[in-house]
Amino acid sequence: MREIVASELERIGDERLEMVTITAVKVDGSLEHADVFYSAMSAEEDGRAEEVAEALDELRWPIQKLVNREVSTRKTPQIQFKPDLVLSSALRIEEILRSMSDSGEFDASETDAEHSGDSASPEE
Known about the structure:
Distance between the termini: 54 Å
Structural class: alpha+beta
Helix content: 40-55%
CATH superfamily of the largest domain: K homology (KH) domain
Number of domains: 2
Mean pLDDT: 81
Number of helices: 5
Low-confidence stretches: 119-124
CATH class of the largest domain: Alpha Beta
Radius of gyration: 21 Å
CATH topology of the largest domain: GMP Synthetase, Chain A, domain 3
Strand content: 15-25%
Shape: elongated
């Protein structure tokens, strides 16, 4: 299903969706709903996240029709687009850690050294 949606978005070629990636699809057990997660990092940086969400909402029904034709199950889940926040959250955490390291509040090498000494050798 992820490949079907991603291919269709690429085929449509809407310029608002440039650099948008379909990262995952989560289908509920009853096959009634499917959350289609997308990443739009460059759009977020440019302040166009709302524009991307609007474009995906506009294209939801045409994509739904394609999914209905392409997926061979008795029931086809209704798709809903949701932003994938995992990557942006990870990048934000990395940015915070880097700024703490630069300011001397956090030293990753000290943490690594502490963890490497946690496992005692059998000879001790």
